[in-house]
Amino acid sequence: MSEKHPRVMVAGATGYIGGGVLQILHQKGFWIRALCRDKSRLRHPDWCDDIFVGHATQPETLMGLCEGIDVVFSSIGIRSFKRKPTVWEVDYQANLNILQEAKTAGVKHFIFVSVLHASEMARLSPIADARNRVAQAIIQSGMDYNIFAPTGFFNDSQEFLVAAQQKGVVRLFGDGSGVGNPLSALDFGKEIVKVIEDPKLRNQVRPVGGCEEFSHRQVAELAFQVIGKEPRVKTVPAWWLALQAFLLRPFNYNAYTVIKFFEFVARTPDMTGEPIGRRRLEDFFRNLAKGLSITEADSLCNSQPCQNSVRFRGSKTMISKEAEQQLRERFEQFAELREQHGTERALEMMMNGHAEVQKKLMEPLIRGAPLAEAFYKAIPIFEQLGMKMDVVDISNKGKDAVLEIQRICPYALLAKQFGLQTPCQITCDMDVEAIQQAFPQIQGRILSKLAQGDCVCLFKYERDANTGD
Description:
Helices cover about 45% and strands about 15% of the residues. By secondary structure, it is an alpha/beta fold. It folds into two domains: about 5-300, Rossmann fold (3-Layer(aba) Sandwich); about 320-465, Muramoyl-pentapeptide Carboxypeptidase, domain 2, CATH 3.30.1380. The chain starts with 6 loop residues before the first strand and ends in a 5-residue tail after the last strand.
């Protein structure tokens, strides 16, 4: 394999995620070292330039693992009802062992697969807590890093098809309305190549997923559709999962951790991430139904470009064509102004007239109404832009105040097309500034950003409670 690429060590190469990443790295000509306990478990040993036999949970077997390596990728983790090894031994300590080897060898770049909403989930799920602690250790290590927080992978959705085929019924955690956009490991592998090759994409925590959004119920229905049977779906309430976890904890900690993970998913309505995939879940299911292996099923999926904006199957927030065109024109305008006048001047010029636009849009909603009510009325406007918006009234101590929560950023893909790392400067930053200019009595702040790795975009607006306009 070509020496023009960095040398990559893949931990987790025998699993679905790591195996998919290894396959893409091989196809792109990278020099690859795979860590595994047993060579025979590798799908294609010939894809590796070097195979390092060791146990990630046993640091004495890892000496020299990262010698001569530029990039480390790890997806090591355990999801098992067996009592040993535990989540803390694998998801946590094994990854820290690999991180220590990487530090010792002077590795420059560490890529880690965490879980979506890890910081929020950590209070409920030991799996998320363990992986979140590893992610923080990597961030603080001094190495370049990429932390990916996937919504879930095709192999997770495979369980729906297996249940439909073998049991004739699919059981959903929660009421089945929670949504996600499952991702192919091969599509994920292509994103790994991008962050290895482009330093500008590093040092980020990114929630990622595929290009189609499904509710859990829709995935179950798709599984039955593929095998030609009428759907039979039953639901398992979150409280029942919590009870089972409580009862199991003294006897089987691993079972407890898995069920607590499922409980969080059952309680979380939105498990979506930035759409980086191109493969379709239906193709994957149909390939599996033909008797193909999971690797073959993934490889033979049709690979189609994602839309330029966030368009998910079953989404209630599909962006309108008119809004999509307006967004594109905004980015094109900025790109042209930046080329002619530089970034700072381009941003100043983009702000011209923007306050008047915000005033025209928001004044009919804000006048005579509390901010929470006004922002609630604005939800249909944001839905036309492909956003998922929640509103929380936080009025207190003489302040009329509201939190605006955006769960999807429809600007992210366009920003990358126009050479921007994030879209914030020409979207949300400008919108908040324009609102403050249009309504001087309102103070606005951005508290978190999806584009910077946070789980939501969070905006806070407040004014004196006696202000009616």
